[in-house]
Amino acid sequence: MRIKITPFLLFNHEAEEAAKFYVSVFNGKLLKVDHYPEGTPMPPDTVLTATFEIFGMTMTALNWGQEAKYSETISFAIEPDTQEEVDHYWNALSADGGEEGPCGWLKDKYGLSWQVAPEILPRLMSDPDPKKSSAVMVAMMKMKKIIIKDLQAAYDNA
User: Fold this and answer.
1) Left (φ > 0), alpha (ψ -120 to 50) or beta: where does 59 sit?
2) CB-based contacts of 34: which residues, under 8 Å, 6+ apart?
3) Is CATH 3.30.70.1400 what the domain over 1-67 is classified as, yes or no?
4) Where are the domains of the chain?
5) 79, 66 contact by CB (below 8 A)
6) Hey, is 61 helix, strand or coil?
7) Using CA atoms, how far apart are residues 10 and 50, in angstroms rounded to an integer?
8) What's the CA gap between 141 and 158, in Å, rounded?
9) How far apart are CA 47 and CA 34, in angstroms?
10) What pTM does this model have?
């Protein structure tokens, strides 16, 4: 048996648009677009699902004909290596109606929650020296978008 987990993201009618958005942000691939079959109450050519891949993970966007209500209880975390990557993902995901949140969290224009936390953050926060790890935590708590040089400065000056 082949077992895998595929996240399904619900949309009113924006599934294909959202899939293309995520593919563009993460340099992914749109794999397949399926339409509701004839005889359903949906108008002809209405997209049912758009399946896409980002960073090797397959996801499916599903039009279910009603508003989707996302919350922070589920989020996608990405760990960029550089400030340039942090800036790219932060700016792209928070654009066009997205909302910036504290400590590297944001909601994209569809309401999906993301954590844009560079790989250096958990590394510095897990330092065995409590003064250093605490200084990094305090610096991070003051940020919306994570600024790597400010984390490193807090760490170095502790």
Assistant:
1) beta
2) 47, 48, 49, 50, 51
3) no
4) 1-67, 70-158
5) no
6) strand
7) 11
8) 16
9) 6
10) 0.91
Task: Pull the structure tokens for residue 35.
Answer: 């339409």
Each of the 158 residues of the chain gets a pLDDT tens digit; together they read 678 889 999 999 999 999 999 999 999 999 999 999 988 888 878 999 999 999 999 999 999 888 889 998 999 999 999 999 999 999 999 999 999 999 999 999 999 999 999 999 999 999 999 999 999 999 999 999 999 999 999 999 99
Q: How far apart are CA 110 and CA 97, in angstroms?
A: 8
Q: Are 59 and 22 in contact (CB under 8 A)?
A: yes
What is the identity of the amino acid at 72?
A: E
The domain covering 70-158 belongs, at the CATH homologous superfamily level, to 2,3-Dihydroxybiphenyl 1,2-Dioxygenase, domain 1 (3.10.180.10)
Query: Checking phi first, is residue 36 left (phi over 0); if not, alpha (psi -120 to 50) or beta?
Result: beta
Task: Report yes or no: 11 and 65 within 8 Å, Cβ to Cβ.
Answer: no
Cα distances (angstroms) measured from residue 34 to each of 50, 55, 64, 68, 85: 6, 22, 13, 19, 32
Mode of pairing for the β-strands spanning 47-54 and 29-35: antiparallel
